[in-house]
Design a protein that fits this description.
Length: about 450
Amino acid sequence: SPIILWFRRDLRLSDQAAVAAAAAEGPVIPVYILDDETPKHRKMGGASRWWLHHSLKSLDQHLRDKGSRLILRQGNAATILADIAHKAGAQQIHALHHYEPWWLNAEKHLRESLADGVELILHDGNYLLPPGAVTTGGGDPYKIYTPFWKSVRERMPPAEPTPVPQKIDTPDQWPVSDSLDDWNLLPTKPDWATGFTKAWTPGEEGARANVDAFIDKATRYDEGRNLPSAELVSRLSPHLHFGEVSPAYVWHRVTGRGRQVETYLKEIVWRDYAQNVIWQFPQYGGESYREKFRDFPWRDMNDAKVAKDFEAWCHGKTGYPIVDAGMRELWATGWMHNRVRMIAASFLIKHLLIDWRKGEQWFWDTLVDADFASNSVNWQWVSGTGVDSNMFVRIMAPLTQSEKFNAGDYIRKWVPELSDVSDPYIHDPEEHGAKPASYRSKIIGHKDARARALDAYAVVK
Ligand code: FAD
């Protein structure tokens, strides 16, 4: 009988344990289900849907090159899988582990819906280690990153990546499939994704090309990763999020190239750490982990002035060049440099005193790498509301950060109103009398914002 191969955020054929296991067992029915029901309000945002469309197209082509194909269905994943398995007479469904709370629920529901003797078999491999694989001396999962990193590092390197299976046998009969174009995952009018097409090549091949392009840069990662103008980061996050490449593959390709690469490996482990946090605290994306912040006096979004400030942040019109450059890069390409993500997030939370969850939701909708774990863990890290240190009172000065990390060229690229402003005025043109009339004044002064944030913090402290 055929084997069902269930794809989720693991859209690759190489180093994919579920693909290898299914291909070894018999004829395979590869399935992807667009499920907007199971994740509820966490259904994929607009930018992710753009990526998904292209990634599925690429995966289907890759399968066709092997004589197979991808079956597409839309609806409740557990119900549909049980139905496909029943009709095909399949005894096994193979898939990779995922740790978003809605997937854990769906797996439970699926197991309950399967006929006796039909199994759901889950494999590891989308992370370096499964959550809970390393524990503190007391046997508990880690909450803090640094000891987590040290424990993971001791267990590395990961196993050598495995190749694409030689053969993927086809079933006698294919189940019905939707057509990808009918899913309308791409924007129509206005097409806000023209910049995405220039910036990215979704799919396994594009992911590997990105790894190739990064190899030489990896030896300068430590010195360059905080400089938004330098373009020395790997831009692998959407490829890793959609599982077009495994972290083990990335690890083996970059490792052993000197000291600076170790800093890169630490970042890859941040991705594992984020999974480890949401696996322990499934509510992490929806509420502040530290209880006292649940009553924090955020500004009220029903107030028109606050809603206007939020809009200004979303669209890169705050009058803070580094924040505006980041938010416009995000809108144009679906991605933002990590240092700038930290500055922009801190600005929303502390300068505008807007609930971090509003920013997290905007990122969820606009990032091509929008990831439940990485997004909520990083937002809670910046806001100081999370499992690690309370950073609320560490209020980043965006203009100083911009200067320190030499963001001039980055700002000139993304904020055309400032393209003729030179260093050092570019970081704070208003202060230096260099602000062109076309660029807006600061939405709020740094000192006033800082004082307001600290006053608000005093309420919950
Ligand atoms: P590189 O610097 O080349 O790092 C390599 C890989 O390591 C990344 O691709 C990513 O998979 C992982 N990584 C690096 N930094 C982090 C980190 N801080 N946390 C978790 N993984 C990390 N990353 C996402 O993948 N999805 C998100 O939704 C997301 N939201 C974020 C929100 C905020 C407010 C902040 C401050 C950071 C967020 N990040 C998120 C983390 C980080 O900014 C991106 O992973 C990184 O910028 C991606 O670019 P890169 O691939 O060039 O990273």
